[in-house]
């Protein structure tokens, strides 16, 4: 159980995806590449003790344990749409607070332009690390203004409880206007950097997974269309797939990309 | 085992028919009872694709197995196995047309033309249609054995296309284990034919 107050700004009236589906259909390659594998394998993940090191271009680098993270800011419940690059989506009540709360604490310096998120990569706890499917540890990144945006959630729970292991326990990111893989799971290190971080999927396949990876129905993945999506538990069998919205419907982030050609910076 | 009576063959074929229908029955029943996980439509699409490749491999294995084991009756099973390959391929195509495009032919066509992995899968499926249609004794008689055999050799192109479709699909997620297993099996099944052919000509 994890106590939280509902943030009415993000209390969606959309139908929430069933808890069972949210916790049994996951992309978490450290525990296997099939989507049912993380739920089966992730029990080996030890989420306590856990520390997150925040370092790099900051005035006050620090190492925080889980209790410190839980107390850092009031925990809110926010219902976000999650859009996977594979063309499916969910609606999930996450628990956490804006990442900006944490970043303000470490005081990024004048060199700070990007934030890199590094996930745990422990062979003993994560059986699939031995397969070289991706560059381990899993690394993701955001531009500093994206990381500071209030929508960007440092996530500690879902559906009123602490994060289940397969959903990226004990602490993960949720960036709802980007494809799901941008939201790193089981984070152990947050580095504020001057240079563009090398992100795992971008390294694996740069033409298919850009650094930005904003949800954009007009930029297709080469292998599949991004114009529509299947809402888990709702679309496809009796009704057609739904249209995907620009920025996954979070238009308040559009100003971050003013003047940028999002077809080029995909 | 080298000989099978007509009666034995009948029961064997019936058994194979029942067993080969089980994957389909399982999908139907699991769909009704919500047993296919969070994304049942993705499950059905992938599962019917998998079974198409399984049956194509089994069908391709008949001739080498017959030659190696001297079980000549195996040839009597090939037609049914080939037709099951087509059945699962048709289910696979139907899921694409239904769950991905909701029967919008024009939209589906754009997808087929634009995405190489779908193009390849679609070509393989279309090439299977004449094989399924000419799988009766009557068709063999009309076409003549030679022409019929020539037509059915197109399966040597169709199966690699099917495997390529799978490899290409998985390339987006960097996950090649299963497609490469299929590629190895198909290479073996086609390679052994090539080897025999070369040995004969030398």
Automatic annotation (TrEMBL), chain A:
Domain Oxidoreductase molybdopterin-binding: 46-201
Keywords of the record: Metal-binding, Molybdenum, Oxidoreductase, Signal
Catalysed reaction equations from the record: L-methionyl-[protein] + a quinone + H2O = L-methionyl-(S)-S-oxide-[protein] + a quinol; L-methionyl-[protein] + a quinone + H2O = L-methionyl-(R)-S-oxide-[protein] + a quinol
EC numbers: 1.8.5.-
One GO biological process term: protein repair
Keyword Endoplasmic reticulum: no
Cofactor binding comment, as recorded: Binds 1 Mo-molybdopterin (Mo-MPT) cofactor per subunit.
Enzyme class name: oxidoreductase
Cofactor(s) in the UniProt record: Mo-molybdopterin
Residues noted as binding Mo-molybdopterin in the record, renumbered to the chain: 26, 29-30, 84, 119, 167, 172, 183-185
GO molecular function, one term: molybdopterin cofactor binding
Transmembrane segments: none
Protein purpose: Part of the MsrPQ system that repairs oxidized periplasmic proteins containing methionine sulfoxide residues (Met-O), using respiratory chain electrons. Thus protects these proteins from oxidative-stress damage caused by reactive species of oxygen and chlorine generated by the host defense mechanisms. MsrPQ is essential for the maintenance of envelope integrity under bleach stress, rescuing a wide series of structurally unrelated periplasmic proteins from methionine oxidation.
Assembly description: Heterodimer of a catalytic subunit (MsrP) and a heme-binding subunit (MsrQ).
Protein family per UniProt: Belongs to the MsrP family.
Protein name: Protein-methionine-sulfoxide reductase catalytic subunit MsrP
Gene designation per UniProt: msrP
Range within the parent protein: 60 to 325 of 325
Automatic annotation (TrEMBL), chain B:
The protein's name: Protein-methionine-sulfoxide reductase heme-binding subunit MsrQ
UniProt keyword annotation of rRNA-binding present: no
A Pfam family that the UniProt record links to this protein: Ferric_reduct
InterPro entries in UniProt: Fe3_Rdtase_TM_dom, MsrQ-like
Cofactor(s) needed for function: heme b; FMN
GO MF, one annotated term: oxidoreductase activity, acting on diphenols and related substances as donors
Keyword Methyltransferase in record: no
GO CC field: plasma membrane
Membrane-spanning intervals of the chain: 9-31, 51-69, 81-99, 119-138, 150-168, 180-196
Family listed: Belongs to the MsrQ family.
Cellular location(s): Cell membrane; Membrane
Residue span, Ferric oxidoreductase domain: 49-162
PANTHER family: PROTEIN-METHIONINE-SULFOXIDE REDUCTASE HEME-BINDING SUBUNIT MSRQ
Top-level taxon in the UniProt lineage: Bacteria
Record keywords: Cell membrane, Electron transport, Flavoprotein, FMN, Heme, Iron, Membrane, Metal-binding, Transmembrane, Transmembrane helix, Transport
Functional description taken from the UniProt entry: Part of the MsrPQ system that repairs oxidized periplasmic proteins containing methionine sulfoxide residues (Met-O), using respiratory chain electrons. Thus protects these proteins from oxidative-stress damage caused by reactive species of oxygen and chlorine generated by the host defense mechanisms. MsrPQ is essential for the maintenance of envelope integrity under bleach stress, rescuing a wide series of structurally unrelated periplasmic proteins from methionine oxidation.
Membrane topology of this protein: Multi-pass membrane protein
Subunit record text: Heterodimer of a catalytic subunit (MsrP) and a heme-binding subunit (MsrQ).
Organism for this UniProt entry: Undibacterium nitidum
UniProt-listed GO biological process terms: protein repair
């Amino acid at each position: 159980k994890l106590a939280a107050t509902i943030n009415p700004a993000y209390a969606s009236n959309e139908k929430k995806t069933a808890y069972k589906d949210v916790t049994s259909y996951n992309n978490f390659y450290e525990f296997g590449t099939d989507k049912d594998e993380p739920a089966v394998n992730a029990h080996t993940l030890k989420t306590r003790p856990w520390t997150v090191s925040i370092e790099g271009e900051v005035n006050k680098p620090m190492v925080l344990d889980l209790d410190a993270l839980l107390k850092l800011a009031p925990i809110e419940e926010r219902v976000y749409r999650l859009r996977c690059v594979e063309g499916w989506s969910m609606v999930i009540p996450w628990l956490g607070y804006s990442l900006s709360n944490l970043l303000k604490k470490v005081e990024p310096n004048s060199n700070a332009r990007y934030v890199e998120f590094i996930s745990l990569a422990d062979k003993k706890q994560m059986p699939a690390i031995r397969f070289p499917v991706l560059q381990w540890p899993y690394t993701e990144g955001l531009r500093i203004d994206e990381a500071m945006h209030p929508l960007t959630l440092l996530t500690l729970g879902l559906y009123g409880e602490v994060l289940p292991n397969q959903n990226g326990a004990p602490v993960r990111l949720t960036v709802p206007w980007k494809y799901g893989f941008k939201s790193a799971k089981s984070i152990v290190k947050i580095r504020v950097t001057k240079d563009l971080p090398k992100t795992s999927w971008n390294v694996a396949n740069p033409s298919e997974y850009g650094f930005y990876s904003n949800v954009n129905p007009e930029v297709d993945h080469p292998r599949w269309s991004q114009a529509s999506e299947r809402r888990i538990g709702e679309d496809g069998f009796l009704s057609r797939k739904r249209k995907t919205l620009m920025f996954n419907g979070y238009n308040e982030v559009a100003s971050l990309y003013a003047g940028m050609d999002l077809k080029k910076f995909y | 085992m080298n000989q099978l009576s007509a009666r034995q063959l009948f029961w064997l074929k019936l058994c194979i028919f029942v067993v080969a229908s089980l994957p389909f029955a399982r999908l139907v029943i699991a769909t009704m009872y919500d047993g296919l996980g969070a994304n049942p439509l993705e499950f059905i699409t992938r599962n019917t694709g998998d079974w198409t490749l399984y049956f194509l491999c089994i069908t391709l294995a008949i001739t080498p197995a017959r030659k190696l084991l001297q079980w000549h009756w195996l040839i009597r099973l090939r037609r049914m196995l080939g037709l099951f390959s087509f059945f699962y391929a048709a289910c696979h195509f139907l899921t694409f047309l239904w769950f991905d495009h909701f029967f919008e032919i024009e939209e589906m066509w754009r997808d087929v033309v634009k995405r190489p992995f779908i193009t390849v899968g679609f070509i393989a499926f279309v090439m299977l249609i004449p094989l399924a249609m000419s799988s009766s004794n009557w068709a063999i008689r009309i076409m003549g054995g030679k022409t019929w055999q020539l037509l059915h050799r197109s399966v040597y192109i169709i199966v690699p296309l099917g495997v390529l479709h799978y490899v290409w699909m998985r390339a987006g997620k960097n996950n090649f284990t299963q497609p490469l297993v299929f590629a190895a099996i198909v290479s073996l099944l086609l390679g052994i034919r090539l080897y025999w052919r070369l040995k004969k000509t030398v």
